[in-house]
Amino acid sequence: HQDNLLFLWSITVSIFGIGGLLGSSGSRYLTVKYGKKKCLLCNNVLMIVAASIMGCSKIARSFEMILIGRFMCGISLCVPLHHQYVGEISPRKLRGFANSTSSFFWSLGKAAGQISGQRELLGSQSLWPMLMASCGLPALVQLVTLPFFPESPPYLLMHKGDQEGCKKAIRQLWGEGHHQAEIDDIMKEKATMKNTKILSVLELMKEPAFRWQLYMIVILTATVQLCGINAV
């Protein structure tokens, strides 16, 4: 029935956001416990599995596989790890540039998906499973290359207390040289965090000092959905 089809289509589109909500909610606990590098590797595995499930949905004649794949993609993509890891492994003079690349490549990826989804390219009746499975390619590239990178130096020092491991990671990333100033900065941040209370979402909403910032973030996030960005 047409109403059922419309409902299933709406669920297929929106379930990505539900997965994203779960992924972002658990990100702090996972990154503190396992580290950003390990979490990124697990994200890549999850994305490859999701891409495989969606790519095989037509052969299996199962729309449920698309729902599951979209949900898993939401969990994988919305754990806010990429810009954190890239920013923390970058030298100070390149940190701002490195952090901005996440937004750039996110927008570039969305544009590439919109273009390749045209009926003349991969959006045809025979090729759309390849389009849905293509999200696994960047994840595969990162899964193969990321093991050659060290764990984030701030994570090693602040959460693991591994000063030698931190120095080794810094030398591997930034080359030989005098990096004591960067290590001192991480130690200062660690000392500051000891005296800073981590607020839960409910505590954040109740805190008067952060109320206007919270209002602004909510309004911006809500209205960006109404500005026609996807149509553009």
Tell me the layout of helices and strands.
Layout lengths: L1 H24 L1 H8 L1 H20 L1 H4 L2 H15 L4 H8 L5 H22 L11 H6 L2 H10 L7 H6 L4 H12 L5 H15 L6 H6 L4 H14 L8
Helix pairs in contact: 1-5, 2-3, 3-5, 3-9, 6-7
What does this entry show, briefly?
The chain has 232 residues and is an all-alpha fold. It has helices spanning 2-25, 27-34, 36-55, 57-60, 63-77, 82-89, 95-116, 128-133, 136-145, 153-158, 163-174, 180-194, 201-206, 211-224.
Question: Mind explaining what this structure looks like?
Answer:
The model has no long low-confidence stretch (mean pLDDT 84). The chain has 2 domains: 1-149, MFS general substrate transporter like domains (Growth Hormone, Chain: A, Up-down Bundle); 197-231. The two termini are 31 Å apart. The chain has 232 residues and is mostly helical. It has 14 helices and no strands. Helix 1 runs parallel beside helix 5 (63-77).
